[in-house]
Amino acid sequence: MNHFFDSHCHFDFDHFDKDRSAVWQQAQALGLQGVLIPGVTPSQWPQAQLLSQQLQGGLYAIGLHPWWLNAYLSQSECDKNDWAINDWAAHLVQCMAPFAKDQHCKAIGETGLDACMPPSKQVSLDKQQAMVSAHLRCANHFKMPVILHCRKAHNELLACLDQVKPVAGGVLHGFTGSTQLAQNYWRRGLRIGVGGSITYPRANKTRQAIQALPDEALVLETDAPDMPLSGKQGQRNSPEYVPQIAQALAALRGQALDCVTQYTLYNSRKLFDF
Q: What is residue 44's three-state secondary structure?
């Protein structure tokens, strides 16, 4: 049996509350070796920690997703006092330190830039950039990789990476974009998260980019419950579908499935140290 790792799965979200155990058993039966549950806001970190400890092969990250940033800032001294990036980084290090000691905690994130947020979640891009820079400093402090999210703000995110280089690398998750863009991230030490987007025939630019990257640059992900595969639009995405993403990746790159599963699993192990 081929073995897989889902490097980005929000398995703690309430979308899975009714059948989480059944989904996990089915995913394991299909060869899933584990998942990494990203952090989205500090109040969610304990839940991600507990679930990762309960799952065989469960890992998690600690971070502040841009969609949760506005709510966080409204309750935080950071925004009230107009803190500088170094202050934000120091504050996050203090919040993250108890979790960073946990053997299941393997990354900082997800964080990133999003220029397409719903109106209720919008926060200025400069504040998002400050928080990304703070996360990069935290990742370097803990010597952990960083997990990054980006929509319509790649030039700004690349500038953040140029200012603070992630010493332990990381992953640009949910990648969609050109070959040049993918290579820009890879040159800065980031692997590329390959998910359901490559299953859409119309996603030519993204498919060409993934096709052009070296094996060492790629990890598999679902971003479940979001980013459904082609043919499953409107349905809940699931870690059960990692094998289908791997099959699509093998077909796209003209490689055997067992080859794809071996190098993507190896890349995840190397990146997240498990």
A: helix
Largest CA distance in the chain: 55
Residue 162 backbone dihedrals phi, psi, to 5 degrees: -70, -30
Query: Which residues have CB under 8 Å from 3's CB, separation 6+?
Result: 31, 32, 33, 261, 265
Contacts of 9 (CB under 8 A, 6+ apart): 35, 36, 37, 221, 222, 223, 224, 239
Sequence-separated (6 or more) residues with CB below 8 Å from residue 189: 165, 166, 169, 170
If DSSP codes are grouped into helix, strand and coil, which group holds residue 111? strand
Residues 42-79 pLDDT 10s:
999 999 999 999 999 999 999 999 999 988 887 776 65
- What are the two backbone dihedrals, phi and then psi, of residue 65, each rounded to the nearest 5 degrees? -70, 145
Residue with tokens 């996603």: 203
Q: 71-75, 93-97, 161-165: lowest mean pLDDT where? A: 71-75
What is the C-alpha separation between 67 and 159, in angstroms, rounded? 21
Alpha helices for 143-221 (secondary structure H) = 154-163, 179-187, 204-212
Q: Quote the CA–CA distance of 4 and 61 in Å, as a whole number.
A: 19
pLDDT of 212 > 80? The answer is yes
Cβ partners under 8 Å of residue 211, min gap 6: 252, 253
Instruction: Find out whether 191 and 172 touch, Cβ atoms under 8 Å.
Output: yes
pTM: 0.96
